[in-house]
Amino acid sequence: MQEGTTDQASRSATAEQPPISDLSFEQALAALEKVVRQLESGDVPLDESITLYERGEDLRKACQARLDAAQARIEAIVQDAEGKATGTRPFDGNAPA
């Protein structure tokens, strides 16, 4: 019955995690890093690994969506030398600051 215990532990660990929508960007990123460490350790049973992978993918998507929203906000505002908004321009992550 060891396998049943592992399944129950995996389900309860997932159930105890807060919904991703309730996490700040920083909390979601930390949770994603934890998932990656757990998966990389190789000490997680297959079923739990699949559950962790799914959670990790959901966390990654949430983090990416927040980064995309932040980038859109940056693209929307261009300031002149006096700090007044003068228009918009695209944000190029490769351009020098």
Annotation keywords:
97 residues, mainly alpha, two-stranded antiparallel sheet, 65% helix, 5% strand
The number of helical segments is 3
Indicate the mean pLDDT: 80
Question: Element order, helices and strands?
Answer: HHHEE
Helix proportion? 55-70%
Sheet with most strands: strand arrangement:
1-2
Total beta strand runs = 2
| Large-scale geometry | elongated
Largest sheet: 2 strands, antiparallel
The parts where pLDDT drops under 50 for at least 5 residues are 1-12
Provide the structure class: mainly alpha
- The CA-CA distance between the termini, in Å, is 59 Å
Kindly provide the radius of gyration, computed on alpha-carbon positions and rounded to a whole number of angstroms: 20 Å
Question: Your description of this structure?
Answer:
The chain has 97 residues and is mainly alpha-helical. Mean pLDDT is 80; it is low at 1-12. 65% of the residues lie in helices and 5% in strands. It has three helices and two strands; from the N terminus they run αααββ. α1 (2-16) packs parallel to α3 (46-76) and α2 packs antiparallel against α3. Strands 1-2 form a two-stranded antiparallel ribbon. The N and C termini lie far apart (59 Å).
Which helices and strands appear, and what pairs or packs with what?
Layout: H1 2-16, H2 25-41, H3 46-76, E1 78-79, E2 85-87
Antiparallel strand pairs: 1-2
Helix pairs in contact: 1-3, 2-3
What is this structure, in a nutshell?
The protein has 97 residues and is mainly α. It has 3 helices and 2 strands. The protein starts with a helix and ends in a 10-residue tail after the last strand.
